[in-house]
Amino acid sequence: MAFPFSRTSLINRYTRAMIQTALVALVLTTASAEPPEEVVGGAIASIEAEQVMSDLSTLVDFGTRHTMSETLSDERGIGAARRWLAGEFERYAAEAGRDDVVVELESHTVVADGRRITEDTEVVNVVCTIPGSDPGAESRHYYIVAHYDSRVSGALDAESDSPGANDDGSGTVVCLAVARALMNVRLESTVVIMPVAGEEQGLYGSRRHAGIARDMGKDIRAILSNDTVGDPTGPGGREARSEIRVFSEGIPTAILAEQGRAPNAVRMIRSLSAESDSTSRQLARYLKEVADLHDLPVKPKLIYRPDRFLRGGDHTGFNESGFAAVRLTEVYENYDQQHQDVRTEDGKQFGDLIEFVDGDYIADVARLNTAGLIHLANAPSEPGNARMIVAELTNDTTLRWESSPESDVAGYEIVWRETTSPYWQHAQDVGNTTEGTIDLSKDNWFFGVRSYDADGYRSPVVFPIAARE
Ligand SMILES: [Zn+2]
């Protein structure tokens, strides 16, 4: 007579299950990482619209945040605003039990420029640095930037109420929400959260920070600039609740700034057909892939131009200094609210008031930034010196690269797309190697390569140069 399970076998099964559970736990702790689904899921679930609106209300209550406004008062003006922002970052770090987070007020004097700075003015960036936990990756920096200064109709009006709820209070409270979420996440690389000033007077805060970073050789891999991300509606019943524009430059402005070198660099871009494959554009595509992977409620609408037509923002200074930087902005702007004196005319309300922004939408934009930064900071570096081998004419395509330096690199993927496609369409895992061949012609497709780690984090794509070996 046989029972389906003897008592002994039940015990054995139980014990085996226990050992397996213990082994899985051991593997997870030694790898000391969780898959992106869990890490991103937990972080974005912690972001709350009510908190975002409460932060924005505090920010707006400083009356004006004009760059040349009052700095001594604790209730009104840009000085009070920046001290409050720094204090918030410090409080989040303390509440998360982190003594490694560094919060600084980075100040410099802009001398009167005869344009939008009429007297010598301290322009102060609030810089919150969350150091990476991996010694092999902590030197890599990923930024989120917004401008906390505001303005009304007159660019020099530092006295009138200037709530700047949307431009750019919305981006500033996204910075706060992202900071709260990321303090509780293990990040391999360093994340910098930086509300800047002087944007409305001529991009002073961001441009100076970017220039110094370039001169110091600081390893900044990506900048997400959030500017006017608070209102998913526009005039005339327009609405785009599930999208945010992500602007990215095609021809890098940094190469145009270098006198004499520009023609050669442009010639190189033309010969590689790399007009739409700058590092900023790869970053924009990356953000879209992350949003699609997690099916986030607000997804990037990629706009292939440096900014809104003929305009600029805080990402511009970073682009000028040679960094990959994109701008996030709501789909429809409302010019009755942006850069306007608070007033009513013929019963119509003008001004950048808090009643015109949407906390749920801002929270979703914060979720997109949070997810993007977690992926960027935890993925391995992009493969180095990626090149397409052109020693002889062939109908297939061989790429070579140098290994990413991080210890947790698990392999590489070659990606490709049709020459008319805005996004990478196909990916082939080629394993942990430094060369791969795809049976498709380089004449008919664009190719790139990216690295991945054991947890499933992928690096941005690198577009290869041409080489004989
Ligand atoms: Zn702005």
Q: What would your notes on this structure say?
A:
This protein has 469 residues and is of the alpha/beta class. It has two domains: 36-378, Zn peptidases (Aminopeptidase, 3-Layer(aba) Sandwich); 384-467, Immunoglobulins (Immunoglobulin-like), CATH 2.60.40.10. Helix content is 34%, strand content 23%. The protein contains twelve helices and 19 strands. The protein has helices at residues 7-31, 36-45, 49-60, 78-95, 165-182, 199-202, 204-216, 253-257, 262-272, 279-293, 314-320, 359-378; strands spanning 102-110, 121-130, 141-147, 190-196, 220-226, 233-234, 238-239, 243-247, 299-303, 325-329, 343-345, 348-350, 384-389, 397-402, 409-418, 426-431, 435-438, 445-453, 465-467. The strands form five sheets. Strands 1-2-4-3-5-10-8-9 form an eight-stranded mixed β-sheet, sandwiched between helices. A hairpin with a 2-residue loop joins strand 11 (343-345) and strand 12. The longest helix is centred in the first third of the chain and has 25 residues, at 7-31. Residues 147, 167-168, 199, 227-228 line the site of zinc ion.
Query: Main sheet, how many strands, which sense, barrel?
Result: 8 strands, mixed
CATH architecture of the largest domain: 3-Layer(aba) Sandwich
- Which range best describes the helical content: under 10%, 10-25%, 25-40%, 40-55%, 55-70% or over 70%? 25-40%
What would you call the structural class? alpha/beta
Hey, roughly how much beta strand do the residues contain? Answer: 15-25%
- Alpha-carbon Rg, integer: 24 Å
CATH topology of the largest domain, what is it called? Aminopeptidase
Number of domains: 2
Instruction: Report, as a whole number of angstroms, the end-to-end distance.
Output: 72 Å
Low-confidence stretches: 1-32
- The strand line-up of the biggest sheet is 1-2-4-3-5-10-8-9
Number of strands: 19
Q: Which small molecules are bound?
A: zinc ion
